Amino acid sequence: MEIDYDRIIKVPEEGLTVPGIPEEVIPEHMKNRVERTLIPGECIRNKIISLAGQLSSDYSGTKELNFVVILKGAAVFAADIGREIFRAGGPLIKYHFIKASTYGTEIKDIGETGRKVKIELEPGDVRGKDVILLEDIVDQGFTLLETKKYLLKKAGVCSIKSCVLLDKKLRNPTDEVKEIRKGLSLDYAGFEVPDRWVAGYGADAGEDFRHLPFIVIVKEDYYLNK
Ligand code: IMP
Ligand code: MG
Questions:
Q1: Which of 4, 23, 68, 69 is the most exposed place for a label (fewest CB within 10 A)?
Q2: Proportion of the chain in helix, strand, coil states, percent, rounded to 5
Q3: Which residues are catalytic?
């Protein structure tokens, strides 16, 4: 399969296989909690180079870009994309961090209808700024929506564009979730992933896997029964 990294990449549930890109090997000690590799590290790297190129050219006249990184998930993505923007000759990057926590279980249960989001760490000096909001994965959209509302209404940012690595394609969204997802413009997006629990590259399952350089599908049963 030829991949156009400049567009959002639809990843099938079987995982992304690309000629010339080696498959990742799941180490033996992870096999009880991981089903399979979903996105190889090299595909993520290529995608980040492309996103960095788009941001560098869209903001070529700008001196400085203000990133607001949603912790913890987007930390890895934010670190890598910042360095690629430097390599692409893009603007200087200022990093700000926000932590939004979701009440409820780590892994969403079947039939879950809503999530409460609380801002746990406020970003510093963002008032009056145009910011890029970085997120690891958009699922039902509550986190991105509530973080945006907070930044605009309470933190006084001027405008927000969002940049997300993974966009989960939900199988059975509720009407509320459909509305939320419709209203969330993802200005820069990496991969569309199936409606499974995924982890790696910053995203976790019960705090596992954030350090993986690739993305896996998790064995949900392991974490739900923990
Ligand atoms: P949302 O509020 O339903 O969009 O959920 C988004 C947040 O939940 C993200 O910031 C992630 O931290 C977390 N999340 C949702 N789905 C996954 C997943 O499949 N793997 C890891 N984290 C996820
Ligand atoms: Mg998150």
A1: 4
A2: 25, 30, 45
A3: 139
Helix, strand, or coil here: 130?
A: strand
pTM: 0.94
Note the ligand closest to the C-alpha atom of 38. 1
Q: What's the half-sphere exposure (Cβ side, CA atoms, 13 Å) at 47?
A: 25
DSSP 3-state of 181: helix
Concatenating the DSSP letter of every residue in 2-29 gives: ---TTSPEEPPTT----TTSPPPPPPGG
In 10 A of CB 46, how many CB atoms?
16
Query: What's the whole-number average pLDDT of the chain?
Result: 93
**The pLDDT of residue 115:** 63
Buried b (16+ CB within 10 A) or exposed e, 13-28: eebbebeeeeebebee
Distance (Å) from CA 164 to ligand 2 centroid: 10
Ligand 1: residues whose CB is within 6 Å?
70, 73, 102, 115, 135-143, 197-199, 203-204
Ligand nearest to the CA of 174: 1
